[in-house]
Amino acid sequence: MSSTQTPTALFGIDTLLGEEERAMQQTVARFAADRLRPDLAAWYEAGDLPARELAKELGDLGVLGMHLQGYGCAGTSATAYGLACLELEAADSGLRSLVSVQGSLAMFAIHRWGSEEQKQEWLPRMAAGEAIGCFGLTEPDFGSDPGGMRTRARRDGQDWVLNGTKMWITNAPIADVAVVWANTDEGEGSRGVRGFLVPTDTPGFSAPEIAQKLSLRASVTGEIVLDDVRLPASAMLPEAAGLSGPLSCLNEARFGIIFGAVGAARDCLEVALSYVGDREIFDKPLAAYQLTQAKLADMSLELGKAMLLAIHLGRLKDAGTLRPEQVSLGKLNNVREAIAIARECRTLLGANGITLEYPVLRHANNLESVLTYEGTSEVHQLTIGKALTGVGAFR
């Protein structure tokens, strides 16, 4: 056969990246190849992974909160952070989720909305992977509508007392601190929402693990149960009032997903390209058939467009001009295309595609969760629709 090109080389993606960005991407890719990929199938099958051990190693690598400034954080560009997410999710969405929740949700919440004392207490240890954080917003009955949350925080003298339940919280069962959002009586409607830092050894706090997942199995997911959890006044994030606090954190996490989903899709496509070159059917490689090449061409086109979109949004974020509706464009498109690519690649692998010997169906199953969390496709469609029409259609 003639010489081949990878999909990203076909688009000339490397020419769009700076030297430091490529170096960061290569560093994380090597870590994923050496430390993560050999055990991923076993972790996925077992529904468990050594999260605390990996968090320390990821801290040593410098990727936890890497796009934040100070407090032990690397202070990289947003684009470099996105590329790190891409390589982590090319290994497994669960590993990118671990880093995303730590850096873009829990650490960002403290960095953006916390007091100086809170930052000094938590951020250096979290950047090093010595302390793990989680982010408690979603509830059993309130996902896309966080303003309806039932978790309450009431004043009792100088203290706050929290009661409620959060659901589908990555890292919760192993976390040292939970960023918990609750309704208070100090503001009308959703303006009364405040954030609290809850050390997980606080009496009344529990985080039972959610078992029997068919997706994100190489990730630790749990509930948060708050039963008269008493906190000092200093536990409240002083700069966050209303839903703008948690929603700003979600936008940070969605940005990582824009790149991460491309990583999962790229891994599927690279595996499929290798497979069809080796697999012979009717006395010639599967790659030699027109229908196979049509599938590969279409998938490469969507992968390349998704990567170009991710880099463009990364440049906007680095310039400080990225808007929430643009984040929705990236999350909606890139996850939707990634899951379509994963499913199509599975067809090229045939029956082999359903085994853990190949990562394709593992990626597809993981992307089912990514498609839903940090805003469902429908929520992002309505966000884009509002930006286009000026009319909100959420209710």
TrEMBL record:
EC numbers on record: 1.3.8.6
Residue ranges of domain Acyl-CoA oxidase/dehydrogenase middle in the record: 134-229
Location of the Acyl-CoA dehydrogenase/oxidase N-terminal domain: 19-130
One MF annotation (Gene Ontology) recorded for this entry: flavin adenine dinucleotide binding
Keywords, ordered alphabetically: FAD, Flavoprotein, Oxidoreductase, Transit peptide
Top-level taxon: Bacteria
The keyword Oxidoreductase belongs to this UniProt entry's keyword annotation: yes
GO BP terms, alphabetized: fatty acid beta-oxidation using acyl-CoA dehydrogenase; fatty-acyl-CoA biosynthetic process
Domain spans labelled Acyl-CoA dehydrogenase/oxidase C-terminal: 242-388
Cofactor: FAD
Pfam family, any one: Acyl-CoA_dh_M
Family designation: Belongs to the acyl-CoA dehydrogenase family.
Name this protein carries in UniProt: Glutaryl-CoA dehydrogenase
Organism annotation: Janibacter cremeus
